[in-house]
From TrEMBL:
It is found in: Cell membrane. PANTHER family: GLYCOSYLTRANSFERASE, GLYCOSYLTRANSFERASE 2-LIKE DOMAIN-CONTAINING PROTEIN. One of its GO terms (molecular function) is glycosyltransferase activity. InterPro entries: Glyco_trans_2-like, Nucleotide-diphossugar_trans. Belongs to the glycosyltransferase 2 family. CrtQ subfamily. The keyword Ribonucleoprotein does not apply. Pathway: Carotenoid biosynthesis; staphyloxanthin biosynthesis; staphyloxanthin from farnesyl diphosphate: step 4/5. The lineage of its organism: Bacteria, Bacillati, Actinomycetota, Actinomycetes, Geodermatophilales. It holds the Pfam family Glycos_transf_2. Keywords: Cell membrane, Glycosyltransferase, Membrane, Transferase. This is 4,4'-diaponeurosporenoate glycosyltransferase.
Length: 372
């Protein structure tokens, strides 16, 4: 039987962990009661009757994916009768060659995604700029029409993200629901870099060392009083990747979010969208994950000792499976993924600490990239 002190810790940590999915909704309800549930954003400037759209694809080591992506985007834009240019900013020669079907290809050195996007937007003459990745699909096919319609009401538009055959299905369902609720209330900063649409004149250059350029843009727009929204209809879809690559991607995203958001907590707390982001993303990456591991520790250290392996082994197996260290597939994989996702913030925080300790040492530009 778990003793009283550990039982209290377990109950408290369980409540804190389970509060994560509902906290943004509770915050929204409270703000509506206080009469500040929606952000006050000026109406965006109207778009021209026949806007010119430039799709910018920063790409590095994407030789096998970029050609199909360019063709798909071009087809969607042509069928939607939208004036357009598909521009690939390639950081390696093989990707540039594979992207030759694009309307414009710029070959650069390895300078990182922010530098590539900044240079492309600075050269652009488009009314609307769309930022996307070389390995994702934007759906539905008429997304250009939907995008232009939704940009009449917002300044920065993102999409919901999905992954084919992903074990994170419960995570993506929750994300979609929370983003939709926040967008309807007053905007959301929970954007994805796979799809960002904006008026070119609203763009401000992203600092080169930025670790999460999509979040930086969302925070910058919100700080200027410009509405940030996630489309209820547009989604991005990616093919599954090996588990180890998926783990690294998740840690990288969490690292970027923690690095960008934590130093800006006071500023984020002053806007409805910022407060929603803190309740939505930051809570789960900090308090929620910490509560989960405190609860696991309380059970593992309790008597009878049999509780240790009964809880510790499945948790360790879930994390090992998600990291690709354990090749096992079961019907409970979506549940195991929820458990494993709690280890992501720990890995990201550890990476932040290591980089802070090595701050005087030179670091590589960008992230370690798996060729595709």
């Amino acid at each position: 039987m778990i003793d009283r002190p550990r039982r209290g810790v377990l109950v408290a940590s369980g409540m804190l962990f389970l509060a994560g999915p509902v906290l943004p909704l509770a915050l929204g309800a409270v703000e509506r009661l206080l009469g500040r549930g929606t952000g006050s954003h000026p109406a965006p400037d109207p778009l021209p009757e026949d806007p010119f759209v430039e799709v910018i694809i920063p790409a590095y080591l994407e030789q096998s994916t970029v050609g199909d992506t360019v063709e798909r985007l071009t087809t969607d834009l042509e069928k939607s009768s939208v004036r357009h240019l598909v521009h690939v900013v390639a950081s390696d020669e093989a990707t540039a060659v594979a992207a030759a079907v694009a309307g414009k290809v710029t070959l650069t050195g390895r300078g990182g995604k922010p530098a590539a996007v900044n240079a492309a937007v600075e050269q652009s003459t488009a009314d609307v700029v769309v930022l996307t990745d070389a390995n994702c699909r934007i759906q539905p096919p008429d997304w250009p029409v939907r995008m232009l319609r939704e940009l009449q009401e917002t300044s920065l538009l993102s999409a919901n993200k999905t992954e084919n055959g992903s074990d994170d299905v419960l995570f993506w369902l929750l994300e979609s629901w929370l983003k939709r609720e926040a967008s309807e209330r007053g905007g959301t900063l929970a954007v994805v870099g796979e799809f960002l649409a904006l008026r070119r004149r609203d763009y401000r250059a992203v600092p080169p060392a930025t670790t999460s350029d999509d979040l930086w843009l969302a925070i910058d727009f919100d700080a200027r009083g410009l509405r940030v929204s996630v489309s209820p209809a547009i989604v991005t879809c990616e093919d599954p990747v090996p588990r180890r690559e998926q783990w690294e991607r998740r840690v990288r995203i969490a690292y970027g979010q923690l690095s960008e958001a934590l130093p800006r907590l006071p500023a984020l707390s002053r806007t409805p969208a910022g407060r929603d982001y803190l309740a939505h993303k930051m809570y789960r990456l900090t308090v929620g994950a910490a509560a989960f591991w405190v609860g696991v520790g309380a059970v593992v250290s309790a008597r009878p000792r049999v509780l240790g392996p009964l809880v510790g082994v499945p948790v360790a197996a879930a994390v090992a499976q998600y990291r690709g260290l354990l090749s096992v597939t079961t019907p409970l994989d979506p549940v195991a993924a929820v458990v494993a996702l709690q280890a992501i913030p720990v890995a990201a925080a550890s990476r932040i600490l290591r980089r802070r300790l090595r701050r005087n040492q030179p670091t590589a530009v960008g992230w370690r990239k798996v060729p595709r």
